[in-house]
Amino acid sequence: MKIKTTGIVATAIFLLSIAACTKKEDSGYPNLSISSPTAAQMFSSGDTMYLKGTALASGTDDAHLLHEVMVAVKWQADSSVMFSANYSTHDLESFDFDTFFITPSVVTPTNAFVEAKAENHIPMVTTKTISVMIHP
Description:
The chain is mainly beta. It has one helix at about 1-20; strands at about 30-35, 40-45, 50-55, 65-75, 80-90, 95-100, 110-120, 125-135.
Protein backbone atom coordinates (compact mmCIF):
# COMPACT_ATOMS: atom_id res chain seq x y z
CA MET A 1 0.00 0.00 0.00
CA LYS A 2 2.84 2.40 0.88
CA ILE A 3 4.57 1.71 -2.46
CA LYS A 4 1.34 2.33 -4.38
CA THR A 5 0.77 5.66 -2.59
CA THR A 6 4.39 6.69 -3.15
CA GLY A 7 4.04 5.84 -6.85
CA ILE A 8 0.88 7.90 -7.19
CA VAL A 9 2.48 10.88 -5.43
CA ALA A 10 5.62 10.61 -7.59
CA THR A 11 3.53 10.44 -10.75
CA ALA A 12 1.50 13.48 -9.68
CA ILE A 13 4.66 15.47 -8.94
CA PHE A 14 6.14 14.47 -12.29
CA LEU A 15 3.00 15.52 -14.19
CA LEU A 16 2.82 18.83 -12.32
CA SER A 17 6.46 19.56 -13.12
CA ILE A 18 5.82 18.93 -16.83
CA ALA A 19 2.76 21.20 -16.77
CA ALA A 20 4.71 23.92 -14.97
CA CYS A 21 7.47 23.81 -17.60
CA THR A 22 5.09 23.94 -20.52
CA LYS A 23 5.43 27.36 -22.08
CA LYS A 24 2.26 29.11 -23.20
CA GLU A 25 2.22 29.52 -26.98
CA ASP A 26 2.85 33.19 -27.84
CA SER A 27 1.66 34.25 -31.27
CA GLY A 28 3.91 37.31 -31.19
CA TYR A 29 1.22 39.44 -32.85
CA PRO A 30 -0.02 42.60 -31.12
CA ASN A 31 -3.57 42.54 -29.77
CA LEU A 32 -5.91 45.07 -31.34
CA SER A 33 -9.52 46.09 -30.81
CA ILE A 34 -11.82 48.71 -32.31
CA SER A 35 -14.42 50.00 -29.85
CA SER A 36 -15.91 52.72 -32.08
CA PRO A 37 -17.57 52.71 -34.50
CA THR A 38 -19.39 49.41 -34.13
CA ALA A 39 -19.83 46.88 -36.94
CA ALA A 40 -22.58 47.83 -39.42
CA GLN A 41 -23.07 51.24 -37.78
CA MET A 42 -24.85 53.73 -40.04
CA PHE A 43 -23.85 57.36 -40.56
CA SER A 44 -25.38 60.23 -42.51
CA SER A 45 -23.35 62.54 -44.73
CA GLY A 46 -21.63 65.10 -42.49
CA ASP A 47 -21.84 62.98 -39.31
CA THR A 48 -18.88 62.70 -36.97
CA MET A 49 -17.44 59.19 -36.92
CA TYR A 50 -15.44 58.59 -33.74
CA LEU A 51 -12.55 56.15 -34.20
CA LYS A 52 -11.49 54.54 -30.94
CA GLY A 53 -9.56 51.42 -30.07
CA THR A 54 -6.66 49.84 -28.22
CA ALA A 55 -3.43 48.16 -29.28
CA LEU A 56 -1.52 45.95 -26.83
CA ALA A 57 1.96 44.52 -27.16
CA SER A 58 2.19 40.74 -27.05
CA GLY A 59 5.15 40.86 -24.65
CA THR A 60 7.42 43.22 -22.73
CA ASP A 61 10.69 42.46 -24.53
CA ASP A 62 11.86 44.98 -27.16
CA ALA A 63 10.78 42.86 -30.15
CA HIS A 64 7.18 42.54 -28.96
CA LEU A 65 6.64 46.18 -27.92
CA LEU A 66 4.52 48.32 -30.20
CA HIS A 67 6.14 50.19 -33.07
CA GLU A 68 3.27 51.82 -34.97
CA VAL A 69 -0.54 52.00 -34.91
CA MET A 70 -2.68 53.15 -37.85
CA VAL A 71 -6.41 53.73 -38.27
CA ALA A 72 -8.11 54.53 -41.57
CA VAL A 73 -11.56 54.92 -43.11
CA LYS A 74 -11.78 53.50 -46.64
CA TRP A 75 -14.39 53.12 -49.38
CA GLN A 76 -15.55 49.52 -49.69
CA ALA A 77 -15.69 49.67 -53.51
CA ASP A 78 -12.01 50.34 -54.17
CA SER A 79 -10.30 50.57 -50.73
CA SER A 80 -9.30 54.17 -51.40
CA VAL A 81 -8.56 56.12 -48.24
CA MET A 82 -10.94 58.84 -47.01
CA PHE A 83 -9.10 59.42 -43.72
CA SER A 84 -6.05 58.00 -41.96
CA ALA A 85 -4.06 58.63 -38.81
CA ASN A 86 -0.67 57.08 -38.04
CA TYR A 87 0.81 56.97 -34.55
CA SER A 88 4.42 56.28 -33.68
CA THR A 89 4.04 54.04 -30.63
CA HIS A 90 7.72 53.13 -30.34
CA ASP A 91 8.33 50.83 -27.36
CA LEU A 92 4.89 51.25 -25.78
CA GLU A 93 3.12 48.28 -24.20
CA SER A 94 -0.32 49.75 -24.94
CA PHE A 95 -1.81 52.57 -26.95
CA ASP A 96 -5.35 53.92 -27.16
CA PHE A 97 -6.28 55.71 -30.37
CA ASP A 98 -9.08 58.26 -30.22
CA THR A 99 -9.76 60.48 -33.20
CA PHE A 100 -12.67 61.49 -35.41
CA PHE A 101 -13.63 61.89 -39.04
CA ILE A 102 -16.45 63.88 -40.68
CA THR A 103 -18.21 61.60 -43.16
CA PRO A 104 -18.32 62.89 -46.75
CA SER A 105 -21.42 63.74 -48.73
CA VAL A 106 -22.77 60.76 -50.70
CA VAL A 107 -25.75 60.57 -53.08
CA THR A 108 -26.59 56.91 -52.43
CA PRO A 109 -26.01 54.67 -49.41
CA THR A 110 -22.34 53.73 -49.61
CA ASN A 111 -20.36 51.00 -47.88
CA ALA A 112 -17.12 51.87 -46.17
CA PHE A 113 -14.87 50.22 -43.61
CA VAL A 114 -12.64 51.18 -40.73
CA GLU A 115 -9.25 49.49 -40.72
CA ALA A 116 -6.85 49.53 -37.78
CA LYS A 117 -3.34 48.06 -37.77
CA ALA A 118 -0.84 47.53 -34.98
CA GLU A 119 2.78 46.61 -35.65
CA ASN A 120 5.53 45.51 -33.29
CA HIS A 121 9.34 45.46 -33.79
CA ILE A 122 9.55 41.88 -35.13
CA PRO A 123 7.66 43.15 -37.35
CA MET A 124 4.33 41.39 -36.94
CA VAL A 125 1.14 43.21 -37.91
CA THR A 126 -2.40 42.71 -36.64
CA THR A 127 -5.23 44.15 -38.75
CA LYS A 128 -8.87 44.60 -37.73
CA THR A 129 -11.64 45.87 -40.00
CA ILE A 130 -15.29 46.69 -39.47
CA SER A 131 -17.86 47.65 -42.09
CA VAL A 132 -19.96 50.81 -41.82
CA MET A 133 -22.55 52.51 -44.05
CA ILE A 134 -22.76 56.18 -45.05
CA HIS A 135 -26.19 57.50 -46.11
CA PRO A 136 -27.06 60.74 -47.97
